[in-house]
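# step 3/5: fold
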Amino acid sequence: MAGRGTDIVLGGNLEAELAHIPEDDLPTREAAKAEWTKRHEQVVAAGGLYVIGSERHESRRIDNQLRGRSGRQGDPGATRFYLSLDDTLMRIFTPPRMRALLLKLGMQQGEALEHRMVSNAIETAQRKVEAHNFDIRKNLLEYDNVANDQRKAVYELRDELMTAQDVTPLLDDVRADVVNAVADAYFPPQTPEEMWNAPGLEETLERDFGLKLPLAQWIESDKTLDDKAIRGRILEALGAAYAEKKHSNGPALAHAEKVITLQILDQFWREHLAAIDYLRQGIHLRGYAQKDPKQEYKREAFTMFNEMLVRFKHAVISNLARVQILSEAQVEQLEAERRQPRQMQFQHAEAESAVTEAPAAAAAPAAALPPGRPLVPQAPAAPAPDTFVRELPKVGRNDLCPCGSGKKYKQCHGRLA
């Protein structure tokens, strides 16, 4: 709208015209230049470029850009804007007394009005719109800053994982946090032994980490054990099991550590972005409860981010504890075992089909079947339905009724109930 990227040259674009004329055709090029000079002088004498605006934009910057299309690079020009009192800018943002004042002055339909008061009213309306748009952008920026701060934290963690040669120290810290979080659910801190749920923790450790520990026997055999000592034993056993797995697999597990951690982090981060975006769409409803939506959004987003980090740590330690690195020979053996039951299933299906089709095959000659075609059981053919035979000729709805009443069939015996 503001003419960006368009070079409006008075008299036309001379370079575009000369581009179609060969360079060795000097007379034609000189004639084209003379013709352009004549047109240019005519346009300059007429006043140059005249920009007509059919309305005023909400932003003064756009209006100034339109004005800047005329008189550029020293060329003459002028601008003129036409505005109606029914335009959105004047109808919403100008004072209500403006229309009443003009009606009292006896302004006629289509009569032009040029007054400083009207221009000031238009500029005031534009300032109001710009201030309103600025508040909207500022409000959006405050919401975006929440996700931006969380994005920085996640990307710092991701960069640390990408650049680290060995992620074992980071996993050791994460493992300790995960063990404490899992143990808090079954062994609440500073609670008596009667409130502990040792069988539940044993089941969770075996299901999530593949670790079988006799926690109930530990508690019965040693009455001096507290929740901190039990957590230390669990962490030690989990670390020892993982160290043994890492020692047996070598560099393959070291590479899998980084890959699995990055994949889980990316998955949880995508889900978190979708969740806070859904939260943002309805957080304005908190205003009906006399609460600040922005503060509520910050609090909810912070809580969701912390929960995402807890789930991320648990998923990383759980997957690494249960992952199995197979060699090429083991992979080939698994593929062979996977194919073998499938072949047995096909053989069983063919044998069952052959048993089912045995009477039919005995009755039909063997040459009737194509070579190599398996016998497929076929459902018995359904009996053909009996043909409906109408005793009387068909009567149309608008025909006379056969009963002899003289009425149409649709109004007599053919009437719908």
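# step 4/5: annotate
Residues 1-82 form a domain with the Rossmann fold fold (CATH 3.40.50.300).
# step 5/5: archive (pending)
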